[in-house]
Amino acid sequence: MKIFYSEKLKKLPPYLFIEIDKKKKRAIEQGVDIISLGVGDPDLPTPEHIIMTMQESVANPVNHQYPFGMGMLAYKKAIAQWYKKRFNVSLDTDEICALIGSKEGIGHMHLGFINPGDIVLIPEPGYPVYNAGTIFTDGIPYFMPLVKENSFLPDFDAIPKDVLKKAKLLFINYPNNPTAAIATKEFYERLIEFAETNNIIVASDAAYSEIYYEECKKPLSFLECDGAKEVGVEFHSLSKTYNMTGWRIGWVCGNKNIIAGIAKVKDNYDSGVFQAIQEAAVKALTSSQQCVENFRRIYRKRRDTLVEGLRKIGWDIDLPEASFYIWAKVPNGYTSSHAVSKLLDEAGIVCTPGNSMGKSGEGYIRFALTVDVLRIKEAVERINKITW
Ligand SMILES: *Cc1c(COP(=O)(O)O)cnc(C)c1O
Predict the structure, then answer these.
(1) Å from CA of 103 to ligand 1 middle
(2) Residue 144: is its pLDDT beyond 90?
(3) What is the DSSP code string of 55-95?
(4) What is the Å distance from ligand 1's center to 237 Cα?
(5) Is residue 126 within 8 Å of residue 101, measured between CB atoms?
(6) Would the CA dihedral through 128, 175, 170, 261 be positive or negative?
(7) Cα(30)–Cα(255) distance, rounded to whole angstroms?
(8) pLDDT tens-digit series, residues 75-111
(9) pLDDT at 239 over 80
(10) Looking at residue 17, which CATH number applies to its domain?
(11) Is the pLDDT of residue 22 over 90?
(12) CB 32 within 8 A of CB 348
């Protein structure tokens, strides 16, 4: 039988990291000693205390049945407590929904709010899932460019009136992947006003809220600002904070009517997060956060090694404010994909072409700080030998 695919599936671009992975595999097969700065997946293991809790929880038969509702009470309480401590924002349990990784919620959210022809405002370059969810619901993406001149924040004034009329949902993502920018309080206040005026739901993706470099520049939660809960929700994840990408656990919190919509979609699609994982997440959120501080120290060292190394050889690079990415302008006017090929072919280095995450990313490449300092030093040495 000839297998056919839906028009929606055909409309989706190939998933970014699958393409990069293919390239990388080919090089490895050819015996190249690859330094992978491509995929944003932490190389460090999940902290021991979280693993120990998981080991105990997995043996408890209560956890072998379908999970309870859209998150165990203990998990929601741990989230509320963490949120209060970190952002001084109070959350009720009906303002929180557990997710099977935040990607799951981000991708499913559209189903609750988007009708065919509705516009979704999406930052570009950006995480591909905002667009995928839009395509799956027959929504229309409108891309908001993130450019350096505007501190990698979207310019709401540049969005045409007829677009605003049809816009129902807006995604933002700070700390930002891939540009490593953070948002200011003024930006969030402006965003809330914009959302209220135009009746647009805000979905703030804060997956990198804990990956920052300076205490005085701690990323904010969008929910810290007055009126945020009226207009939106925020996605959080344990993936990047605790090196738990493979565990698949996160949450969404904020406006309870929006949360109810997401929960209804999920009720019909999945049956929640394995409770043993939720119990491990409770442990992660309620224990000492020293492990997270240690990870930040490691990323800071890696960041400084790569940024200082590349600056020495003439690259013009901004110090990232948060996230574990370096958003680097390619030297000498090379295109993103030309630069990425050169780095792979001549230095065995894998990184992400900026334009693959949106057209405003052209001329940039993204390095993920997911290898140790020695390998980063080696990468800098190899890059140094390339003639640009
Ligand atoms: C990694 C990442 C996420 C989180 O993904 P999980 O599904 O929670 O593992 C969300 N948004 C962005 C922009 C990311 O880079």
Answers:
(1) 6
(2) yes
(3) HHHHT-GGGGSPPPTTS-HHHHHHHHHHHHHHH-----GGG
(4) 7
(5) no
(6) positive
(7) 52
(8) 999 999 999 999 999 999 999 999 999 999 999 999 9
(9) yes
(10) 3.90.1150.10
(11) no
(12) yes
Across residues 16-24, what is the average pLDDT?
72
Tell me if 202 sits within 8 A of 195, measured CB to CB: yes
Query: Looking at the predicted structure, is the pLDDT value of residue 19 above 80?
Result: no
- Residue where one domain finishes, among candidates 232, 260, 286: 286
Identify whether residues 38 and 72 lie together within a single domain: no
Judge contact between 54 and 77, C-beta under 8 A: no
By residue range, what is the domain housing residue 360? Answer: 7-45+290-384
Q: Match 């816009």 to its residue by tokens.
A: 167
Token output for 339: 């630069």
Per-residue pLDDT of 218-231, as tens digits, reads: 999 999 999 999 99
Nearest to 296, CA basis, from 218, 182, 379: 218
Per the prediction, the chain carries an average pLDDT of 95
Position 159 scores a pLDDT of 98
Given the DSSP bridges, would you call strands 250-254 and 232-237 parallel, antiparallel or unpaired? antiparallel
Whole-model pTM?
0.96
Place of tokens 């350096």: 148
CA torsion sign for 157, 205, 105, 272 is negative
- How far, in Å, from the CA of 245 to the mean position of ligand 1? 8
**Pocket lined around ligand 1, Cβ cut-off 6 Å:** 40, 101-103, 127, 173, 177, 205, 207, 237, 239-240, 245, 250
